[in-house]
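[#protein-structures] MJ: dropping Tc1-like transposase DDE domain-containing protein here for a structure pass
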Amino acid sequence: MASKSKAMQLRNRGGSAVLGVPPTRGLPWFPPLAIASRQVKIPEGIIVKFLPPYSPELQPAERLWSLIDEPLVNESFKTINEIEERLVTRCQLLLLGRRSANKP
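AK: finished. structure tokens for Tc1-like transposase DDE domain-containing protein:
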């Protein structure tokens, strides 16, 4: 809902806000079909843009999954701590690889 309050702040200052909406999800408070069919009145100053189903450039964290999920695939963990340890180890390895690649 932070984006909603940010949008309202922009609107109150005379600006506009763009909300990216995945077509399958819609806004949290409106279903996408209601928006597309204009059954819902969008407040002035808010522009709704429907995003493609996969928009990694708009969600930079999405690029990380292919790097960090490898040690978790086809594994069974008994506790959340085991998962966390595996992820921390993987992130440390990724950081070490990045640092060594940057060294002359």
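MJ: nice. DSSP finds four helices and two strands in the chain.
AK: one more thing. Confidence is low (pLDDT under 50) at residues 14-18.
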